Amino acid sequence: MAAGPGVRMTTKVVATNSRNVVRSIIGSFSCGAKYAGPYSQLHRQDAGETGFFPVDPKAANRHVLDRRDRALIAALRRNARASLVALAREIDLSRSATHDRISRLEELKILRGYTVRVDEELIDDIRAFITVTLDDDSDQKAVAVQVSQFSGVQRAFCLAGEIDLLVDCRCDTAQDLGRLRDRIGALEGVRSCGTRLVLATHD
């Protein structure tokens, strides 16, 4: 019997006679090199020094952020144009160390881009959310991806509950918003749509 990655196999002879050999195969799972990482170490600690614990490969692929990483992300959320000096001061690191952290977060795709905040009250357009309910057998993610490509759609959120999708929209006119809603409602698998106009935005 071949042992796969992360599995340690030992063989113990229990009894023998002239006709057959009875063998008991004792397999114990260990943290394999394929999933080695911070989470592997956590599982080793949970299992104890002598025990072994199978590692969840999805958990092993997650990125562990320390408090400075989280503080840096929070600072960039507040002001994506903050200077490197200001960011370094906020997380109590040198400029070079802060720059290295930003580069690492970008490489890991945790920081995917930088945006700008605007005063919504000064923009002369229509902001709304379109709620979408899908048929029971519809592919929620597939519909969300389709909707997100439509002109006027900022983002499409997949939700749990009675409403399946929440679509963040920005249109020039009420007619444009109506056409967008009709286009979403005509998609295969969409049962119904509703519209919620944004009256004011508060940060």
From TrEMBL:
One of its GO terms (cellular component) is cytosol. Keywords: DNA-binding, Transcription, Transcription regulation. One of its GO terms (biological process) is response to amino acid. It comes from the Bacteria. It holds the Pfam family HTH_24. One of its GO terms (molecular function) is sequence-specific DNA binding. Residues 65-127 form the HTH asnC-type domain. PROSITE patterns: HTH_ASNC_2. InterPro entries: AsnC-type_HTH_dom, Dimeric_a/b-barrel, Tscrpt_reg_AsnC-like, Tscrpt_reg_AsnC/Lrp_C, WH-like_DNA-bd_sf, WH_DNA-bd_sf. SMART domains: HTH_ASNC. PANTHER family: LEUCINE-RESPONSIVE REGULATORY PROTEIN (PTHR30154), TRANSCRIPTIONAL REGULATOR AZLB (PTHR30154:SF34). This is Lrp/AsnC family transcriptional regulator. It comes from Erythrobacter aureus.
